[in-house]
Amino acid sequence: MIEGAVRYAQIARLWVRASRAYPVSWALLVVGGFLITGIDFVGIWILFQNVTDLGGFDLHEVAFLYGTSGVAFAIADLFVGRIERLGQMIRLGRFDQMLVRPVPLLVQVCADEFALRRFSRIAQAALVLGWACTFVDWSTSRVLLTVLTVVAATVIFVALFVGMACIQFWTIDSAEVANAFTYGGNAVTSYPLTIFPSEVLKVMTFVLPLAFVNWYPSLYVLGHEDPLGYPDWTQWLSPVVAALLAVVALLVWRVGVRSYRSTGS
């Protein structure tokens, strides 16, 4: 684990140095990324100029959902988002090159073309989250759960990135399928899940547990009742779900690597 982190940092440092060769371009990309991602929340703000609540949640509470999901997703995207191009690496023969290097394979894939400019997405979501937090009636347990939520949600998104990307071991041109669960998962969890039918909420609890990204913890932090009436301890299960998904993602990755057959590129 420690060796993998060190190797990742070394590879990432090389890509950061390369990006510094064009400082103006890098700065424009950072600013542009910040503004583009900010448009998402501007859309939510405009929506609330016409409604007082969304699924029983006001603007500040939706901002809390948006911020927790956005920060977690952006961190995951920064560190492992590159794996979404696994199929492209396989098709171009770059994955074969990585196989013979003395560096953990998953580390190489995730650190490839590391782009520090993606930090702008973290900053934008963190600003929204910070603003939303000023409206929360804080207690020690709520602070603790908020921190756990962001950490667990990050792990959940990392697991989704890795697990869904592995589909490309068998169907090389299927990056969009993975994106539907990663980027789509971020979009869905940015809103109150009460806007969906209860059946959808159950699917996101027991089948694809996106509800544990921030929904159940946010019910506790924001003082809302669970619409499905589940026990209160459900709101603290995100770290457990994150750990389970991480294990599943690593197992799927190992199966994918073992079943991989070179394209001959």
Short note summarizing the structure:
The protein is 69% helix and 0% strand. By secondary structure, the protein is an all-alpha fold.
Describe the structure.
α1 packs parallel to α6 (105-111), α2 (23-47) runs parallel beside α7 and α3 (59-80) packs antiparallel against α7. The model has no long low-confidence stretch (mean pLDDT 92). The two termini are 31 Å apart. 69% of the residues lie in helices and 0% in strands. It has helices at 2-19, 23-47, 59-80, 86-92, 94-99, 105-111, 119-133, 140-165, 175-188, 198-206, 211-222, 238-259. The chain is built from twelve helices and no strands. The chain is an all-alpha fold and 265 residues long. It has one domain.
Core attributes:
265 residues, mainly alpha, 69% helix, globular
Mean pLDDT: 92
Rg, alpha carbons: 19 Å
Name the helix and strand elements from N-terminus to C-terminus, one letter apiece.
HHHHHHHHHHHH
- Uncertain regions spanning at least 5 consecutive residues: none
Shape category: globular
Helix-strand makeup class = mainly alpha
Can you count the helices?
12
The portion of residues assigned to helices is 55-70%
How far do the termini sit from each other? 31 Å
Main pleated-sheet profile: none
Secondary structure layout:
Layout: H1 2-19, H2 23-47, H3 59-80, H4 86-92, H5 94-99, H6 105-111, H7 119-133, H8 140-165, H9 175-188, H10 198-206, H11 211-222, H12 238-259
Helix pairs in contact: 1-6, 2-7, 3-7, 3-8, 3-9, 3-11, 8-9, 8-11, 8-12
